[in-house]
Amino acid sequence: YKMLGRCASVVAVLASLVGVISGFYPTLFFKIPEVGFIPYAMSGGPIPPYFDFTMFEDDSWLNDGDVVVAVGTKCGTNWMMTMVHELRTWNQPELKDFEDIFDVVPWAEFPQHPGIIGNAKARIELWDKRGQWNKTEYPFRVFKSHMTPKPMNGPKNSHFQCLDVVGRPKVKYIAMTRDGRDVMKSLEKFLRIHTKEFRTMWGGFPPPLENMEAAFDFCMPTENIPVLGYIKEWWPYRNHPNVLLLHYGDVHKDIPGTLRKVAEFIGLKHIPAKAFKEIEKRVSIEFMRARDKRYLMRFGHNLDKTIMSDKGGLIRTGGIGTAKDGLNEELDKRFEEHMQKHIGDDSELMKWYKDRMK
Fold first, then answer.
1. Cβ(194)–Cβ(308) below 8 Å
2. Cα gap 32→25, rounded to integer Å
């Protein structure tokens, strides 16, 4: 009985310690190898743990005229960031090239290391060390995000709903979704090629996924990385003047038309045809893959680390229907059921989304 009593005391102390960590220092959970992100999430931390939604609780750092490329995860984010950057520098050839995509389009909610989660000032200072946050050479600033708008009515469905689209009418938001099955295929490969250094920093996140089934299990039905939740949250804002909602399928089929649509949206209405031709070449998958070191996404205190372990890991082949090689009948059925559950109550959205999956 004495032994049981001691064990109970130890458990009580551990429980108290976990409670203190959860309440005051949840990032300490990242020190636990491989699985630290799990108690971090159980303590109320978001998943992914390096998506710091607090950056948009006070968005006074945003300026009128800024462009937020708020594309869904694995829906062509680097592609759209490159398009916007190429468009804004159409007549500034000396500013087109860059060493790393974060040098020209900082990732707003990415804290770079756990020590500055929830500290917007420290984050901006760290980005400024790279001369990124307030570059004056460009006609406007561009930021990367994976967030979605605040709900028009009612409570939030997820941490992701933090963009004040209505309250910031002079900030422009570009959103883009994709066939969820292709997202799963891309996500499966993407999570597998993160560096060990990065996983260690974030308590073992992301866990490497072995196959498409593992990707489905990881994302559905909770949508801890929004796929259909993403488009459902953007859909009510599709006609807002400061929102441009795109589908990867449309972009892939008509790059010249997309570039012109984006240019008009961000206020660049007088780009000559010759310049558009050059931009089309520079945003092609072939051009980007030949310069894939630009998309390693360096981060951290000394800025020489990378999220990816493998050059080219982020710039793949692109396309529509890329999931077919790893998709079986059961997984296809699971996605259909998931789609019905999340957007089946909106026939207009369902038709718009499915028509562009072909």
1. yes
2. 13
User: Can you tell me the mean pLDDT for 11-30?
Assistant: 61
Q: What is the pLDDT of residue 150?
A: 96
One-character DSSP codes across 3-64: HHHHHHHHHHHHHHHHHHHHHH-GGGGGGSTTTTHHHHHHTT--SSTT--GGGGTS-TT--T
* 306: β partners: 298
What average pLDDT does range 58-79 have in this prediction?
95
User: What's the pLDDT tens digit per position in 43-53?
Assistant: 888 889 999 99
Cα–Cα distances (Å) from 201 to 51, 110, 120, in that order, read 14, 13, 19
Strand, coil or helix: what is 210? coil
What is the average per-residue pLDDT within 224-230?
A: 91
Q: At what angle do helices 212-219 and 180-192 cross, to 10 degrees?
A: 100
Two tokens, residue 77: 């984010």
Residue 308 DSSP label:
B
The pLDDT, as a whole number, for residue 18 is 54
Q: Which residue has the tokens 């009612």?
A: 154
**Closest to 245 measured CA to CA, from 255, 254, 256, 233:** 233
Q: What is the pLDDT of residue 131?
A: 73
Residues 6+ apart with CB under 8 A from 227: 72, 73, 180, 183, 184, 219, 220
